[in-house]
Amino acid sequence: MYDIVIIGSGPAGYVAAIRAGQLGLRCAIVEKNSIGGMCLNWGCIPSKAMLESVKLYQRILNDSSRFGIEGIEKKNLLFNWNSALKRAVTIVKRLTGGVEFLLKKNGVEIITGEAKIVSSGSVLVNNQLLKTKNIIIATGSTSPAIETNVENLVAEPLSLFTERDIPSDIVVRGNGPIAIELAQLFSFMGRKVTLVSESGFIMPKADNYIRDFMTARLKKDRIDIIYNQDIKSVRESWSEGMLILGEKQIKCDLIVNASKRKGNIIKSDIEIETSDGYYVTDDRFETSVKNIFAVGDVNGKSFFAHIASAQGLNVINHLAGIDQKLDMNKLPMNMYSVPEAAQIGLTMEQAEEAGYELKISEFPLSANGKAQTEGNAEGFLRLISEKRFGEVLGVQIIAPHATDMINEAAAYMQLESTVYDIAKTVHTHPTISEVFMEAGFEAVDHAIHK
């Protein structure tokens, strides 16, 4: 008898399993593919590794002479997808191996196979019935496939980061962080990229300020955006190398599927409530069936790996008697674009709808010494606070290291800090993070360097 059987070994599942082992709970984790799930094997890690490679290529191509480096012949510079991929694969193997080691170190039993829920206390894998007190579904999500009868035209998420020749004209389906990251990845390689958004905008959950900034940045990167269109099938919208979307015809050699994902609902002999392709859960991430939980992408509350991990930890702690509600509004969102984007808390629109009297304070990276020395001064930090007590309600960042910087904002918000707390927090100089102090000063009175 297990205390917990976890189905899926992505960031939600494996983190929950390790925590369960640390607390002395008897735990098994079931995985039908590779330990680490989508994020470590085919998503977060390989994509970010490839982005770092192409950013370095762009830096050498465009900034080497500005930094006093001579002798580089730009005409000889090429980006080799397959060589960069070898580095990414090495990183993936190192990280997935590390996760497997930690699972075993903490006494978690790893079972390879496809799981089926038989009852609220049993899971069937490889004709073996696993008896358990609790079940955690952490099976992640998948982008709905694009139907095609054209060979090698569509790259689905599981097949994108493989050895291949990268063609000249690429269409990316989607409008969220992953789609934007991939659009820039291929654009920086020198390819012609078109981003197809199913809605009238990009970055659906972002503050309008960030959304407008990134829309302008994609235009600067010469990435075309087609709004209010979707690519579900290319059987009838394809003609001699041209993708037909409405009245537009787009030259296309490759379609990369990065559209909004749906939860991976697993086989079950009992009815577990779902809605719009996700498991329905309460604020403890418990499904409609007692003692069965769903965490990560599969419950549709978020599609970020760190939030999936936080949900998994929250469930394990709850089962171990450590009961603390997870405030989803205080968890950061991030995008590894160029420049990076991140936000936490309420957007300005949400804060206004909630009836707060707001103070908006902003500080640009162009006035930051470290940003200038690094040659990356594009972006800003923006604080949204309420006027009465100065409590920080939301933070938005556009900066080269926004995905790291947002964690300082997360700490402020967890402690319910005010702009006065931020203003009096002394930051080392010169650092990019000084923009927090400056924005705090701006909210209280006046920024020093503005």
Structural description of this entry:
The protein is α/β, with parallel strands linked by helices. It folds into three domains: 2-142 and 262-329, FAD/NAD(P)-binding domain (3-Layer(bba) Sandwich); 166-257, FAD/NAD(P)-binding domain (3-Layer(bba) Sandwich), CATH 3.50.50; 339-444, FAD/NAD-linked reductase, C-terminal dimerisation domain (Enolase-like, domain 1, 2-Layer Sandwich), CATH 3.30.390.30. It contains twelve helices and 25 strands. The strands form six sheets. Strands 1, 2, 3, 4, 5, 6, 17 and 20 form an eight-stranded mixed sheet that branches. A hairpin with a 2-residue loop joins strand 13 (242-245) and strand 14 (248-251). The protein is globular, with a radius of gyration of 23 Å. The chain starts with a strand and ends in a 6-residue tail after the last helix. The mean pLDDT is 95.
Question: Summed up, what is this model?
Answer:
The chain has helices at 11-22, 37-41, 44-63, 81-105, 177-188, 208-220, 305-319, 348-353, 369-374, 402-414, 419-423, 434-444, and strands at 2-7, 27-31, 109-112, 115-119, 122-125, 128-137, 141-142, 154-155, 169-173, 192-196, 224-226, 238-239, 242-245, 248-251, 254-257, 262-263, 267-268, 274-275, 278-279, 292-294, 333-335, 340-345, 358-364, 380-386, 392-399.
